[in-house]
Automatic annotation (TrEMBL):
Gene Ontology terms describing biological process: methylation; RNA processing
Keywords annotated in UniProt: Methyltransferase, Transferase
Gene3D superfamilies named among the record's database cross-references: 3.40.1280.10
Pfam family, one: SpoU_methylase
Alphabetized GO MF terms: RNA binding; RNA methyltransferase activity
Keyword Kinase: no
A GO CC term attached to the entry: cytosol
Name of the protein: tRNA/rRNA methyltransferase SpoU type domain-containing protein
SUPFAM superfamilies: alpha/beta knot (SSF75217)
Sequence ranges assigned to domain tRNA/rRNA methyltransferase SpoU type in this UniProt record: 27-169
UniProt cross-references to InterPro entries, sorted A to Z: Alpha/beta_knot_MTases (IPR029028), rRNA_MeTrfase_TrmH (IPR004441), SpoU_MeTrfase (IPR001537), tRNA_m1G_MTases_N (IPR029026)
């Protein structure tokens, strides 16, 4: 069977205004001192793909408008709502007041394996992704409600932050929709 690739105009994508009005996945993505603007852009693009509510950019994490973010976001930085916080713990305090249950994506004592996470469709969640080398700051881990770890079976002990975002966001999306 032949399979013809679809043209962009055949994909039936919504525009930015329709995106803003569309029902969102009850998930906020928090970037804790993510230094790579390409990773930031990739996270925006993934958040657009799965209609994530919002991205919180914290600490040294760059903000739009930014040419480097745009290279990988491809305009998703314009569709996905975002806010900036100087300190990630301040962002978490705001999310807690807004009723979010917060997970750091981190290898930590008593972390829950992503394959075992149990989500409640009636709750709102936030996930925190950390610095490319140092991960989620310990103070931020302490302020989280829990930690989720992606099981890994190779020789490396971590994944790129944008890859991690894609895996975790997809898992939350399919479990919350």
């Amino acid at each position: 069977m032949k399979r013809r690739k679809l043209k962009l105009e055949e994909l039936g994508r919504i525009n930015i205004e329709e995106f803003r009005e569309a029902e969102k996945t009850p998930l906020v993505v928090v970037l804790d001192n993510v230094r790579s603007q390409n990773n930031i852009g990739s996270v925006f693009r993934t958040c657009d793909a799965f209609r994530i509510e919002e991205v919180l950019l914290c600490g040294i994490t760059a903000t739009p408008p930014n040419v480097e973010i745009h290279k990988t976001a491809l305009g998703a930085e314009d569709s996905v709502k975002w806010r900036y916080f100087n300190h990630t713990v301040s962002a978490l305090n705001t999310l807690k007041k807004e009723g979010y249950y917060i997970y750091s994506i981190e290898q930590a004592e008593n972390s829950i394996s992503l394959e075992n996470i149990q989500l409640d469709k009636n709750k709102k969640y936030a996930i925190i992704l950390g610095h490319e080398v140092h991960g989620v700051d310990q103070e931020v881990v302490n302020a989280s409600d829990g930690c989720i770890e992606i099981p890994q079976y190779g020789t490396k002990h971590s994944l790129n932050v944008s890859v991690t975002a894609g895996i975790v966001i997809w898992d939350f999306f399919k479990n919350l929709k």
